[in-house]
Design a protein that fits this description.
Strand order of the largest sheet: 7-8-9-4-10-11-12
Bound molecules: adenosine-5'-diphosphate, magnesium ion
Number of helices: 22
Helix content: 40-55%
Shape: elongated
Length: 620
């Protein structure tokens, strides 16, 4: 609730609307106890008194009635009728919409065609017709305004409900044996309440205007009862001679409708979960860089990451997702980066090309050098020309990275043509060849498939083809096989290995366990809590892991033909990177931890074979 209010008042205009509307509503509520003239007491001796006259602050109307008193009583009435109409329209419309959307089929058809029929008439005409049938009067005007607005709510809510009715949690509720009523009340309604509130808050202003319109025409409140519309209507004849009689109710209508609409917009923005999570705050095109100093170049590699620090600044918290990570990738080499979920592998990979979302991501230190050129803080154009052409990514879930509405061929040719101005025909030819390269059978026909028409393994092959489209030097593969089953995993890995050799690609291969790294990678680096804890040639690390964490990770993986062995899960949880413990981050889970493991900085020591541990395995 306080979050809602904070979001609401961050919008200055909505705050202004809330204040103005608050004052008006307060005045309307207090009207009966304010020392006012009776609103309907006529006094023909003092007709058309100007504002600020003795005893009549806003003057009098054509029957000598006090305008201030009529204004406040009229506002009270107009507000009440407007709110009531919005409430009725909202509730009835939402009920119709929920029923139609949830039950679908014939229910939906019949009710929605009825609603369509109502919508086919201009609404003011419809309102007039309803009042004509029911007879003039404020209650009938209310009914008319509510009825003409029901279709708007019904359609809106039906649309939202249809979207919800086919979601998994509704299926789950059905499978759990819940009845329709219970599902509607506990699963559907809570999800549409914000939509109803939003729709109401943005239409209440309209309804007040419509009611005033009917009263203005003499179909709403009946004399002598004042509401804002009828006050305007009665003042019409004296528009020129005594303009204040029209201006007073007119300004009030303006204030009410404007403040209601400003507030309504504010409520809509504050309730919308997408806007709330900052969807309107576009992430920057490249990751924000706040780097104090640049480390001197050390490695000679094709890609060298030096002391990279990437953090997420969320409110007062600082998540040190990548904490002084150094890696080096030589041409044609495969480097494995291994660690549990949340250890910072993906953030490391995304930092290379400035792809970490900012806000909240910030690169606070280090350098990423591609053939000697520092990419941290490089202009967007530079990074863009390198993305895909020099360094390409393969992500875990190709269904999320491929556009669902375009054929894979179009997506491939687009990827090619971004960097090279070749003709459509040429791009198409290359796309087919790429699909053949990633061993997609019958590539010439498959190129016209949509992503959903392919299996998971095929899709990942397309993902790889996309990455290869511009013949990059480096591929960063972020858990490319995690979403696939084991046999397909093996095929994809074999494919990557082939491609790497035939195209002399350098691959940064990110995995969460040691399962397949042995076959693929020349060297591995193990990451924990945002830091590298061990690095070295794969065979050596696998044969004799030095860091207890590496050892535990390796023993998590079953080995075919490896005999009987206890598969040990690692107890405990990875550390939260916003409050890393002093000393070794793994110490709380390590059964060899000593008191001095929990103090100070522990360095990553060694050259070809590095380990960040005071008591490495096998050293003792
Ligand atoms: P993984 O090794 O599984 O790829 P990630 O690199 O995705 O891990 O995440 C590393 C750490 O960064 C995690 O602890 C996570 O909490 C943090 N993190 C990632 N994205 C965000 C974000 N947008 N806001 C805050 N923290 C984040
Ligand atoms: Mg990841």
């Amino acid at each position: 609730m306080s979050l809602f209010l904070r979001l609401l008042f961050r919008n200055k205009l909505a705050g202004l609307g809330a204040v103005v509307l608050g004052v008006i509503v307060l005045l309307a509520l207090l009207t009966p106890i304010l020392p006012l003239h009776p609103p309907n007491a006529t006094n023909t001796a003092s007709r058309f008194l100007r504002p600020l006259s003795e005893g009549h602050l806003l003057g009098t109307d054509h029957l000598g009635r006090d305008l201030l008193s009529r204004l406040l009583w009229g506002t009270r009435l107009s507000l009440a009728v407007g709110f009531a109409a919005a409430l009725v329209a909202g509730l009835v419309g939402a009920a119709i919409g929920v029923m139609a959307g949830y039950f679908g089929g014939r229910t939906d058809n019949v009710t929605m065609r009825g609603v369509d029929m109502l919508m086919a008439f201009p609404y003011i005409l419809l309102a007039l017709a309803i009042v004509a049938v029911l007879g003039p009067g404020l209650l009938n005007a209310l009914i008319a305004v509510a009825v003409v607005n029901i279709p708007f709510f019904a359609r809106n809510i039906r649309g939202v409900t249809v979207g919800i009715a086919h979601r998994e949690f509704i299926d789950a509720a059905k499978l759990a044996g819940m009845g329709h009523t219970r599902i509607l009340l506990t699963e559907v309604v809570p999800n549409i309440v914000p939509v109803v509130v939003i729709a109401m808050s943005t239409t209440i202003g309209w309804m007040i205007l419509e009611t005033a319109g009917l009263s203005f025409l003499g179909l709403g409140s009946q004399p002598p009862q004042a509401d804002l519309g009828s006050m305007l209507g009665e003042a019409r004849s004296a528009l020129i001679t005594a303009p204040h009689t029209s201006i007073v109710p007119g300004v009030m209508i303006l204030l009410i409708v404007m403040s209601v609409n400003l507030l309504g917009d504010g409520i809509r923005d504050a309730l919308d979960p997408r806007l709330r999570s900052g969807a309107l705050a576009r992430p920057m095109a490249t990751t924000r860089v706040e780097r104090a100093q640049t480390p001197a170049p050390k490695g000679e590699g094709l890609l060298s990451i030096d002391e990279l620090e990437t953090q997420f600044h969320v409110g007062p918290r600082v998540y040190k997702a990548v904490n002084k990570v150094s890696l080096e990738l030589r041409p044609g080499e495969c480097l494995g980066l291994i660690g549990e979920s949340g250890s910072g592998k993906s953030v490391t990979a995304l930092s290379v090309m400035g792809l970490v979302a900012s806000p909240p991501g910030v690169i606070t230190g280090g350098a990423v050098r591609l053939e000697g050129q520092d990419l941290i803080g490089a202009p967007y154009e530079v990074l863009r020309s390198l993305r895909g052409r020099k360094v390409a990514y393969i992500f875990q879930d190709p269904l999320a990275t491929l556009h669902p509405l375009y054929r894979i061929g179009d997506q491939l040719t687009e990827a090619i043509r971004v960097h090279e101005p070749v003709s459509h025909a040429e791009a198409h030819r290359r796309a087919v060849r790429l699909l053949e390269d990633v061993r997609i059978p019958n590539a010439a026909a498959r190129i016209n498939a949509f992503p959903h028409e392919l299996s998971g393994g095929m899709r990942q092959r397309v993902g790889i083809a996309m990455a290869l489209a511009n013949d990059p030097d480096i591929i960063i593969a972020d858990e490319p096989t995690t979403a696939l089953d084991v046999t397909v995993q093996a095929q994809i890995l074999a494919l990557l290995d082939d491609l790497r050799r035939s195209r002399s690609l350098a691959i940064l291969f990110i995995m969460h366990d040691f399962g397949v790294v042995g076959q693929l990678c020349d060297r591995v680096a193990v990451m924990y809590g945002g830091r590298i804890v061990e690095a070295g040639p794969t065979a050596e690390v696998l044969a004799a892991p030095a860091h207890p964490y590496t050892k535990r990770l390796i023993s998590c993986v079953p080995e075919l033909g490896g005999g009987r062995r206890v598969l040990a899960a690692i107890p405990g949880l990875p550390p939260a990177v916003d409050r890393l413990p002093d000393g070794c981050a793994f110490a709380p889970r390590c059964d060899k931890a000593q008191p001095d493991c929990r103090r100070g900085e522990i360095e990553l020591e060694g050259r070809a074979r590095k380990v960040r541990c005071l008591y490495p395995e096998g050293a003792s």
